[in-house]
Amino acid sequence: MKDIFFTDLYINAILLFYILFFSILISIYILLNDDYNTIIRIISIIIIFSSIYLFLQKETFLPFLGTTFIPNNLFDGEKYPEGSNLNYTINMSDYDDGTKVIYWASNNTGKIIQNPYDAYKDFHNSGIAIVKNGKAEIRIYCPDKYKVKNMYLLKKHFHYRIVDNKKGFVSPVQTFYVDC
Known about the structure:
By secondary structure, the protein is α+β, with helices and mostly antiparallel strands. It has 4 helices and 10 strands; from the N terminus they run αααβββαβββββββ.
């Protein structure tokens, strides 16, 4: 991936951090200062809680994990990793039959992988499932555990997004932990 994408992500995260931090700081100042009226203080309390809420959302600093838009005709039909040996069923009773679920898991090497880029290299362990009778059948190889920043070891899992067939919106990234 080009460095420009990572630079954009870092700039976005840093700017959002400063904006939220400054918002909280100014709101606390207003609350502690007797020169402001009650309405301004109530607005400051709302800003503090809103900022804290945004701080706690992973999509705030990693926007690519949130809802996005992709033309739904790019996802033709069912696709599974050839020879996959694990099947998982996801309850999709809230979605219409025919809804598409795109998913991906780390590759199966039988080792702990040292970073996410190598874990998902070439996305061999990915596919598209179609909701039938309120269920999506996910077929994958047993994913490997992998480390993030050589510190955090993530359990075996796969990620998925739900594709809105009518509008093209794609849900935020969701994670399903597996035991294999």
